[in-house]
Write a structure and sequence with these properties.
disordered N terminus; eleven-stranded mixed β-sheet; three-stranded antiparallel β-sheet; 20% strand; 573 residues; D-Maltodextrin-Binding Protein, domain 2; alpha+beta; globular
Length: 573
């Protein structure tokens, strides 16, 4: 069996060199005063292991860091680690079953205590605890053990050869948390540790001063950050809430804020804002896909939560592939892209549209087919027996609840899709929820995207790095959010197929790049074209904005957008 790693010779193995700028911004830490960031989806928690929401992962990345992460080019670079382990340097075993990380000497937490391998080992135990409901559990897929060999050395052992061993502790979604702070927060106790979850001790450039969930976070420069000249800003204000329009205006028109994330707005709206002269919009394409998720379980409120969370009782309508396919066929993705994103989007049928190696050549969904969708529903036995324009079958109306977060573009999409579905005889009720709640991961809320108390829901997410192994592994049987996992988990649809699970395992042990690409494309097609469990709509560019006076910003579509905030600075007049 040929088992060679896909990235062993291509990853940067030297320490990350800080970006160099010509504006004379070197000097004392905190020299540039305050920086103000606005995310119109407000953070609800600062523990990325208890939330799958981008807003929570990225705000936390200001404080907690991984051993390594990805640059704007997708290259992997060390952050807390000395270098990237490879077969060539002895960090990855010849049989590809282990990876050994070395922590840089002198790394300390913001409270001044040393970062050690015990913290790394504890992080794995925290996320892998069967009752913990770790939102990032897919990063630890196949991990058999994590050992602290000495204070600065940690060894991860996998249950099979792992040509791509860079899941645990790599990227903004899988940072290191402090063992001392979270010691009493394992398993079911995890969501109860409010102080730790809201005020994590970290190694990043900032420390939390005050965190108000779904509102504002105030931070100050980490006095123990490893570079004495960074961060340039003494204070950081992270404002959450509002909407994308207000966020864009706050940077581009009024100059009230320095950085605005995720300007999910029509291109002409952004262009008009830029005329304000205070800032500039930035964009970059990666694997960020706006899509519709199909609920494969019965979401009826008459059922107990555990039943609603699993396929114990299949969805009375959407368990039929023909219905799911008809819903997809009725959608005009080109029009959605034009209306919502313009050149900052492209219609797609893929869950993984990038990198190119993993992008399927499936284009079947790009052509809208209203008549074909009608015929498919007829074939499935859904007819309009009473002439009210809504199909029915066995006394049940073809009626769906379609939910998403509150956002102008998403509400435009909802309106268009509702109309197309009405044309094929589907009655659609629209619901939009505050993004801070929808993506918040609160186990007590009925309105999170993880609970999925609707028939279909729409959102976008992405993955760290340039390899989708962890992203695709999220759809393993048993990975569904449920009461026993504190409603955490990435298998939102409750998809389960042993054949797919077998492909997860095969991808994990496959080193040949071409074979990995082939497997990844098959898995993509299984979730999309073959089952229509996920209905991709638009491959979205990440569009954000920063003030003209803010230097050092490098948009990164492969990791947290705030990945290099330690290098931000205020430009001179």
């Amino acid at each position: 069996m040929k088992l060679r790693t896909l990235l062993m010779g291509a990853i940067a193995t030297t320490a990350f060199a800080p970006l160099a700028f010509a504006d004379g911004h070197t000097g004392e830490r905190g020299r540039d005063g305050e920086v103000k960031i606005i995310y119109w989806q407000a953070p609800s928690i600062l523990n990325p292991y208890l939330s799958g929401g981008t807003k929570d992962v990225e705000s936390a990345s200001l404080v907690v860091e991984p051993l390594a992460r990805y640059t704007e080019t997708g290259a992997m670079v060390p952050f807390l680690a000395e270098d990237i382990p490879t077969v060539a340097n002895g960090g990855v075993s010849e049989d590809l079953t282990t990876i050994t990380w070395k922590i840089k000497e002198g790394m300390v937490w913001s409270d001044g205590t040393p970062l050690t391998s015990a913290d790394v080992k504890f992080t794995a135990e925290y996320c892998m605890h069967p009752e913990g409901g770790c939102a990032q559990a897919a990063f630890f897929d196949g991990v058999e053990s994590v050992e602290a060999l000495d204070d600065l050395t940690v060894k991860v052992t996998f249950n099979q050869p792992k040509p791509n061993p860079y899941g645990p502790f790599v990227g903004g979604q899988s940072p290191i948390i402090q063992a001392a702070q979270f010691a009493d927060c394992l398993g079911a106790k995890a969501p109860e540790c409010t102080e730790a979850n809201f005020n994590p001790i970290g190694t990043g450039p900032f420390v939390v001063d005050d965190f108000r969930p779904n509102d504002v976070i105030t931070m100050s420069a980490n006095p123990n950050y490893r570079d004495p000249s960074k961060p340039a800003f003494a204070k950081l204000t992270f404002k959450g809430g509002g909407d994308a329009v207000a966020a864009g205006r706050a940077v581009l028109e009024t100059g009230e804020f320095d950085y605005a994330w995720n300007l999910q707005l029509a291109p002409d709206v952004i262009a008009k804002m830029e005329e304000g002269g205070k800032g500039v919009a930035i964009a970059g394409f990666g694997p960020l896909v706006e899509r519709i998720e199909m609920n494969l379980t019965n979401p009826s409120p008459d059922l107990p939560p555990e039943t609603r969370a699993t396929v114990a009782e299949p969805h009375p309508i959407l368990s039929d592939f023909k219905v799911r396919k008809a819903l997809s066929m009725a959608i005009d993705r080109a029009l959605l892209t034009e209306v919502g994103y313009g050149k900052a989007g492209s219609p797609t049928c893929n869950l993984v549209p990038a990198p190119a190696l993993y992008a399927s050549d499936n284009t079947e969904c790009l052509t809208q087919d209203i008549e074909g969708a009608k015929a498919l529903l007829e074939e499935a036995g859904w007819t309009d027996t009473d002439g009210d324009g809504v199909r029915d079958k066995d006394g049940m109306k073809l009626a769906l609840l379609y939910q998403t977060s509150t956002n102008a573009v998403r509400q435009d999409f909802q309106a268009l899709i509702k109309d197309w579905w009405q044309q094929i005889g589907v009655e659609t009720e629209l619901r939009n929820l505050d993004a801070s709640v929808f993506f918040g991961g609160d186990p007590g809320s009925p309105d999170t995207f993880q609970k999925f108390y609707a028939d279909v829901e729409m959102y976008a997410n992405t993955f760290n790095g340039t390899d989708p192994q962890q992203y695709l592994a999220a759809y393993r049987c048993g990975g569904e959010p449920k009461p026993s996992s504190q409603w955490q988990g990435e298998n939102i649809n409750r998809f389960c197929d042993p054949a797919y699970d077998a492909m997860i395992d095969e991808l994990a042990r496959t080193g040949d790049l071409e074979k990995r690409g082939e497997l990844g494309r098959k898995m993509n097609d299984m979730l999309t074209k073959d089952t229509m469990t996920i209905v991709p709509l638009v491959n979205r560019a990440r569009v954000s904005a920063h003030a003209d006076s803010l230097g050092g910003v490098v948009l990164n579509v492969w990791d947290s957008e705030l990945w290099n905030v330690a290098d931000w600075y205020r430009k001179g007049e």
